[in-house]
């Protein structure tokens, strides 16, 4: 079974990012490049990281009108990402067009409710009800739109998995027992998320900011 851990490479310096991936590549299953990395280094940076030979997850969280998102998807074909994210709240037509425009082997997954939000935050955006209901509602929409899966927290993945058996579930907001939480609010351990049906475990700071990133990655691997 391949390693489900994708390292969230949220670093502004390309050389430091490349060095970290080289050190960790035997202990991770892929690399997630998000907005910080992509805005700083663009296509060139993605090619540089892809040299490590691991699958690349482009976490661009696209959210715009359908035509614009489809155009963005076409512009990243050349990067051959294994996974790309869009926001489910962009609506069904946007997700359908994103999937239609994606490269054949790219999984398109929809961000439901960011793991840095809780129910109080949700209410402030005008949405009443639980985080769980919000995630389930947007998971249904993503499935209807023909996407491959969703991004949700480990607190919801078990329920979504029961309902969407062959879905592909990306779970960030993971913290090994005892590690600090930072800005994440809906948090579980990597082991729990995996038990509950996560396909990909996204882990950033618990590895990248550790005194010894290789030891941190190995310790997480040993719990899975
Ligand atoms: O709901 C979401 C969607 C994406 N993310 C991304 O995952 C990593 C998590 O990093 P940590 O350092 O392990 O907290 C980060 O790149 C986020 O942009 C998320 O956290 N939650």
UniProtKB/TrEMBL annotation:
Record domain Orotidine 5'-phosphate decarboxylase: where: 4-220
GO cellular component, one term: cytosol
Keywords: Decarboxylase, Lyase, Pyrimidine biosynthesis
GO terms for MF: orotidine-5'-phosphate decarboxylase activity
EC number from the UniProt entry: 4.1.1.23
One Pfam family recorded for the sequence: OMPdecase
SMART domains according to UniProt: OMPdecase (SM00934)
InterPro entries: Aldolase_TIM, OMPdecase, OMPdecase_AS, OMPdecase_bac, OMPdeCOase_dom, RibuloseP-bd_barrel
UniProt pathway annotation: Pyrimidine metabolism; UMP biosynthesis via de novo pathway; UMP from orotate: step 2/2
Active site annotation, chain numbering: 59 (for ompdecase activity), 61 (for ompdecase activity), 61 (proton donor), 64 (for ompdecase activity)
Major enzyme class: lyase
Subunit (UniProt): Homodimer.
Protein function: Catalyzes the decarboxylation of orotidine 5'-monophosphate (OMP) to uridine 5'-monophosphate (UMP).
Name assigned to this protein: Orotidine 5'-phosphate decarboxylase
The species this protein was found in: Altererythrobacter epoxidivorans
